[in-house]
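Two proteins were folded this term; both appear here.
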Amino acid sequence: MKHADIISRLSKRQKADLLTGKDFWSTLAIESAGIPSAYLADGSHGVRKQAAASDHLGLNASIPATCFPTAAGMANSWNEELGEEMGRALGEEAAAQKVNVLLGPGTNIKRNPLCGRNFEYFSEDPYLAGKMAASYIRGIQSTGISACIKHFALNSQEHRRMVIDSVADERTIRELYLTAFELAVKEGKTKTLMSSYNKVNGVYANENTHLMKDILRNEWGFDGVVITDWAGCNDRIEGLKVGNELEMPACRYGADNVYEALEAGTLSEDIADENLDRLIDLILTTDKAVQNASESFDTEAHHELARRCAEESMVLLKNEGGILPLYTGSRVCFIGDFAASPRFQGAGSSIVNPTKTENYLDEIKKYNMNYVGHASGFKHFGGKNAKLTEEALKLAASSDIVVYFAGLDELSEAEGIDRKNMKLPENQLDLFRELKKLGKKIVTVLFCGSPVELDVIEQSDAILHAYLTGQASPTALLNILSGKTCPSGKLAETYPYKYEDCSTSQLFHADDLISEYREGIFIGYRYYETAGINVRFPFGFGLSYTSFEYSSIHCDKNGVSFIIKNSGKTAGAETAQLYISRDSLNVIRPEKELKGFKKVFLQPGEEKEVFIPFNEYSFRVFNTLADEWQTEGGEYKILIGSSSQDIRLSTEISISGGETDFYTDAAAIRKYFSADIKNISRQEFELLLGRNVEVPEYTYVNGRKNRIEIGYNNTVTELKYSGSFIGRIFSRGINFAHSFLWKTGNKTMANTLEMGMVHQPMRALAKFGGMNQNQLDGMIMIFNGNLMKGLRKFLAK
C-alpha cells in the first residue's frame, strides 16, 4: 500500500467515517493523520459547486462557471482534440473553485431516445462515446484534479432508476454498455468512477462483483476510486468488498455499519485498508493540484472556447435550395419563445450557473442581416395563446424568411424523469402549420438534447438541430445561419421517423421492477440498418456548406488510409467514419459497426490523406460460451463513410481468427440474426441470456395483492400499498402534491418532487435525511403497521 503509515494511525471508527462523506459534497478530513478534505462537484459540461445549501437536484444556485455544450452536443463534433481542450478548461475552473473531483463525463449509452438524461450522454455508439469520454478525462486530469466517469453501468432510464434491475446478456453488456467505460479507463485513465443506482442482472451495481472486480479491476486494471451515486449504496459492506471506496453523501448508518462490521470481524480490516489506501491517494494527489491552482480563470477565453464547441456541436439536417446561409438582402424574422429565452442546458444535477449569457435578440443586431423583429408565437411550457399566434403571423407576413425557434422545454428533459414521448409540443406544431400557409421560407432551429418526431417540421426549408450547446450557443448559431461558420456537426445518434421504430419502444418502461434488454446488441443504427428500418436522419449524418470527395482507399493490417478533398467553395470540416461489416452464419452481427473516425479541416480545393488505425476494438466479439473476447476469422468489409448510410469507399481485408461456437443452440435464436427484435419472446431472450429471467415479486401481506411488505428498497410511490395507513397517506400525499403542482402551473416544483421523492427507496430517504440505522428501521416498521414499536425504534439513541 502507498499510505500504510497513515492508515496505521487510524482507529476503526476513523476508518469507517473516512469511507463515507463528511457532508453532501465533501470527504472527511483527519488533520492528525495528515488527511485533508476533498470536494466533489457535478461537472458534466460545467462546474456546479453550490455556494449555498447543497442539493442534488440543481435547486440552489452554484458559483458561476462556464456552461459548455452538453455531452449530447459535443459528441456531434466528433472532435477528440476539442473535447480534450474543453476538458482542460473544465479542470482549470474546478481547480480554481477548489474542487478535487469533477463528477463527469456521463458515459452511458443511449438505449432509448426517451431517457430523460440523454442530453448528458454522448451517443448510441460505444466507440464514439468512449473516445469522447477519454478526451474529456485527459483534459480534466491534465490540471491535476480527477474526472469521474458515470454511471457504471446499464443506467439506461431515469424512471425508478434506484431500484430497477437491468437484465442483459453478457455479450450485450460487454460490447455495448461497457466498451465506452473501458475506453475511458484504458485511454482516458480516469482516476475515479461512479457506480450507478440500478441493479445489473439482479445485483446492485455498487456491490456487483462481476462488474466491479472481475471486469473493472482485474480485466481493465483500474486502480482508482469508485464512488457511489448520491444515496446509491444498497449494502455498504458488500460495496467495500468489491472495491467501492466512497459512499456519498454522508451516511450515518453506512459508517456505523462499517464500524460495527470491523469490530465484529465480519468485514476484514485488510479490505477496509485497501479501499482507504486508494481513497487517501486520490485525496492527497488532487489536493496538491487544488492548493497550487490559480483562484481565477480567463472567463472570456473559456466563453470563446464554449462558442467554438457549440459551433461544432450543431447539426445541419436539411437545407433545401441552399437557403442557408441566409442572404443579407432577405427580410428575416425570428419566431419562437426560445429566441427570447434561450435553452442551452438540461435540468437536474448538471445545471450550471453560467459566467456569461447571450440573447439571440441582442446578438442578431451585430450581424449584417435584414432583421425585422421577433415574436414569441407560443407559450414556453405549452398551451394555446391566440394573441401570441396572431402577433407571430403578422410579423411573418412582412418577412421573406422565418427562423423558427422550436424545441423541448426544461421540464421535458431532466434528471430523474424520462420523456413521455418523442413529440414536439402541440402548440409549436400548430403555429408552424399556420406559418406554412403564408408561403414563406422557414428555417427551423431545434433546441433539445435528443431526437424528436418532426411531424410538420419536416416541411421546413432548412432544419438546424442546435442541441443544448451551452452559454455561447446564440453567437455560435448566428455564425452558422449567417455563413460566418460552416456547419460540421454530425449526429451521434440516429433520428427515427417515429418512436415506434425504435428497437426498445416496446421494452422501455414495460415493467416497474425489471428492464429486459431483450434487443441485445441491436439499438440505434445497429438495429435500423440490420432490420431494414428507414430513418429520417442516419447516424453520423450532417450537412455542410461545402462538399467533400473521397478517393484512394488503401487497407492493410495496421489500418485504412484514403484521401479527402474539399471540392466546394467554402472552408469546412468533414468527419470520415470507419465501419466494419462481416456476413456471418455463426455470430449475430449488426449490418455494420463504427470502429474509427477522423475529423479533418480543409480549405476549398485542399486535400489530405487520412489514416484510421485498427486497434483492439476493431474486430473483437465477445463469446459468451467461452467467456472471452475472440476474433472471428475471415473476410471483413472495410467501409469509409460520411455517415452510416453514406458509404463513399469500401474494400476488404482478411483477418485471421478462430472458428468456435458462440451459442448452444443458434437455430433457436435465429430472429436475432435478422434483428427481428419486435417479435422476440422472453423464452428466446432467455436462450440468449443463458438462464431464466428472474422476475422480482413483491412480498404481499396476508396474501393481499394490494398490500405489500415495505423494505429498504421499496419506493415512496409503493407506499400506497403499505400495510399501514400512515404509509398510504404519506404516498398519496406526495402524489397529490405532485399532481396539484403540475395542474396549477408549478411544473418545475412538480418535477423536483418527482425527481427527489416519488421514486426514492426507503434507504435513500434515510441517507438524504441523515438518519441512523435505528431511524431507518423504525420508519420501515411504521410503514408496515408497527406504529408504536417503530416509533420507539426511531426515537432510540
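Next, the second protein.
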Amino acid sequence: MNHNDRFLMLLALLLLVPAMGAFAEDLTNDEIQAAFDAIWLVIAAALVFFMQAGFAMVETGLTRAKNAGNIIMKNLMDFSVGAVMYWAIGWALMYGESVGAFIGGSDFFVQGDTALMRDWFFQVVFAATAATIVSGAMAERTKFTSYLIYSVFISGVIYPISGHWIWQGDGWLTAMGFHDFAGSTVVHSVGGWAALAGAIVLGPRIGKYVKKDGKITSKAIMGHNLPLAALGVFILWFGWYGFNAGSTLSGTDTSMTSVAVTTTLAASGGAILAMLTVWILNGKPDVSMSLNGALAGLVGITASTAVVGNSEAIIIGGIAGIIVVLSVEFLDKVLHIDDPVGAVSVHGVCGVWGTLAVGIFGDLDAIGSGLTRGGQIGVQALGAAAVFAWAFFLALILFFIVKKTVGLRVTEKEELAGLDIDEHGTEAYAGFQIFQNM
C-alpha cells in the first residue's frame, strides 16, 4: 500500500465515522439491540452451517475412498432437503403455538418480519446438524434415495417435535425445569439415537463381523484419509463456537465469552482423556479415537456450557472422552452394531451424559428451574429418556418401513464396488489408483 492509498483510506475513515455516529443517533436502543442480535445470530448460524463441511470431512476420512462421493452427496442433500422441510413444516411443529405442550401448530411455510427470518435461519442449521449425524452411522451401504426419504422425516417431524418439548417455551419438559442450553439432547441425542436405529435396521458392512468357531470377531475397516478426518474435527470444533456461544441469542450478551471458554476446555479435556483411555486399553494413542474424544467433549458440554465453570467443563469433557471410547468398544465388540464413525457414541451416548451433567455440575441459580440438585438430575434423566424413546423408536419404525418398501440397503455387488460408481456414476478420486482390501 503506497502513501496515496493510506491517505485515501484515512480520509474515508474520517468521513465515515461522523456519518455512522449521526446514523446511530437516529436509531432507538431497541433498534440498535435488534441490529446487534441479527449480526450475531447470522454469524453464529454461518459457523454452524460450516459444520456441515466438518461432518462431511470426518465421515469421508473415516470411511473408504470408494464411497467418498456418496458421503459428500448425503451431507449436501440432507441439509438441502432438510432446510426446505424445516421451512415448510419443521419450524411450525417446533416453534409454533403449542398444542398440549407437545407440538407446535402454527407458522407453516415460514413468512414474516426480519426477526422471524433471523430466528429461522439460526434454527435451521441446528436441524441440519441433527439430520447429518445419522449419515456416518449408516455409511458405505445405504441407498441414496432411502437416505433422502429419511432426511425429510427427521428435519420435518422427528427433530422439531422433541425440540418443541424443550426449546419452544411452553413445552412439557420446559415446564418441568429441563435445561439444555445448546442441544446435547435436542440436537445431538436425537441424531445419535436415529443413527442407532438406522445402523440396527441396516446391518453391518460386508466383512465387518467374522464368525469363527462359534465366536463373532469384529474386523477393523480402516478409513482412507485420517488428515481429512482431522480437518473435519477442527472445522466442527470451530463451528461449535457458533453452536454454543451463538445460543446466547444476543449480540450484547457478554456471557458468550465464558461459553466459548467452557466449550474450548471441554473439547480439550475430551481429546486428552480419550487419548489416554484408548492408550491404556490398546497400547497406542489412536488417532481417530482421540479425534472423537474432542467431539465427545463438545457434545458433552453443549447442554451445560452456560451454567458451569471452567473446572467443571474440563471434568465434563474429560468424562465424555472416556465414555466415547468405552461406548465405541461396547457397540462394536459386544453388541456388534457397525457404526463406521462412532456417531452413536459421540452424539447419542455423550449427549445423554452432557444432559445429566447439567444436574450434576450446573449452577442451580443460573439454571433457574427452582429444583433441588436431585430434582434437577431427575428431570434431566427424564428428558433424556423421553427423547431417546421418541427419536429411537420413531426412527426405527421409519427405517423398517423404508426397508420393506423402497429398500434401505444397496446390493452386495454395489457395496463391494463402492457407492460412488453405482449410486452416482462417478469416482471421487478419478485418475488415482486406490488400493483396498475389500
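The chain is about 70% helix and 5% strand. The chain has a mean pLDDT of 93. These notes refer to the second protein only.
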